[in-house]
Amino acid sequence: xxxxxxxxxxxxxxxxxxxxxxxxxxxxxxxxxxxxxxxxxxxxxxxxxxxxxxxxxxxxxxxxxxxxxxxxxxxxxxxxxxxxxxxxxxxxxxxxxxxxxxxxxxxxxxxxxxxxxxxxxxxxxxxxxxxxxxxxxxxxxxxxxxxxxxxxxxxxxxxxxxxxxxxxxxxxxxxxxxxxxxxxxxxxxxxxxxxxxxxxxxxxxxxxxxxxxxxxxxxxxxxxxxxxxxxxxxxxxxxxxxxxxxxxxxxxxxxxxxxxxxxxxxxxxxxxxxxxxxxxxxxxxxxxxxxxxxxxxxxxxxxxxxxxxxxxxxxxxxxxxxxxxxxxxxxxxxxxxxxxxxxxxxxxxxxxxxxxxxxxxxxxxxxxxxxxxxxxxxxxxxxxxxxxxxxxxxxx
Length: 396
Ligand code: GDP
Ligand code: MN
Fold this sequence. Notes:
By secondary structure, the chain is an alpha+beta fold. It has 3 domains: 1-19 and 108-247, ATP-grasp fold, B domain (D-amino Acid Aminotransferase, Chain A, domain 1, 2-Layer Sandwich), CATH 3.30.470; 21-105, ATP-grasp fold, A domain (Dna Ligase, domain 1, 2-Layer Sandwich), CATH 3.30.1490; 248-395, 3-Layer(aba) Sandwich (Rossmann fold). The chain is built from 13 helices and 18 strands. The chain has helices at 5-14, 28-42, 70-80, 142-148, 166-175, 180-199, 236-239, 249-256, 275-287, 304-315, 334-348, 364-372, 384-395, and strands at residues 22-25, 47-51, 64-67, 84-85, 95-96, 100-104, 115-124, 129-135, 153-157, 202-212, 218-220, 224-227, 260-263, 268-272, 294-297, 322-329, 355-361, 378-381. The strands form 5 sheets. Strands 7, 8, 9, 10, 11 and 12 form a 6-stranded antiparallel β-sheet that branches. A hairpin with a 4-residue loop joins strand 7 (115-124) and strand 8. 39% of the residues are buried. Residues 20, 48, 50, 56-59, 64, 66, 105-107, 139, 208-209, 221-222 line the site of guanosine-5'-diphosphate. Residues 56, 208, 222 line the site of manganese (II) ion (MN).
């Protein structure tokens, strides 16, 4: 589950990670009040206004702006709140900004220049260990750094038996070229960050940039935090951070009826039971020249109600031109699934998209007969390839 920057920073801060301080606002008036409060608390003269949407690259899209007066705060807040922010990570329509984070300015001049670093904590799937990935090249596109100057990206793996060892945190600070007070601050920052990652059951932390201020403080200026949804039951307070406005509405609806649905770009709707079969089905559609419109796992109980809910979800996507139902009847018998499909089809009235049904497993023959005799515009198939070919035939 992805979080907004302000929520991610809240979690970081609760584990002692230093952050650029800020207050959320939903109107220009609230933004001005937030700015005044931040000046009182931190002494900051300037403020930064940051759009809160689930997408990176906000700065490039005009979603992060510096305000040098309260008049600026009011005007810029008015511009950002309500805008459809387009960044390299959003669609062309962009993302509607409902709230902004008003922060202290941390790029103030001082004894040295502020420096930006990149740091993330994530699972290295090939070793099964968490690792810190970091670079001196912060503040910019890390994908570009990885492509052009890969030697400037460092990794530090964490042994699950010992956790992060003190020398490892020092090594990170050293590789970033730090010394003296900044080195000590970075060492603290890194160990607090790893603790926060582990304790919050996160799947990804990406802090870009981590800033060394001109007076050698190390702070998180940005925070991309993705929580492991499977561990959310252990964090009731994080569960409340979910912002459904940032998610695909059809996927949210699917979640509410207990279906596993992921929206894709193709034109063949898929209704499958079991994630493995769903993936195999998508592969087969692609191999036969089609493009899956979605991933949909209806789970173990493919009864009429679930099948109907699944049909409705698939048909919400106007690009769907055919539906392939591919269900293995192991625990649930195929004839029951077939009856469910027929009932759902009748309940829904006019489905204009052709449907191809492949049922394999217990009572598959009875199921095929039920479909064939139903008089509905539903074609049955026995073999996997046959099903995919029939889909291609109706698309042609
Ligand atoms: P992103 O563009 O979505 O990654 O948003 P960030 O939170 O990383 O902010 C984008 C950029 O805004 C940073 O890389 C900084 O250059 C700039 N920025 C962020 N905070 C401050 C600040 O306090 N003062 C100034 N002057 N610039 C800031
Ligand atoms: Mn950033």
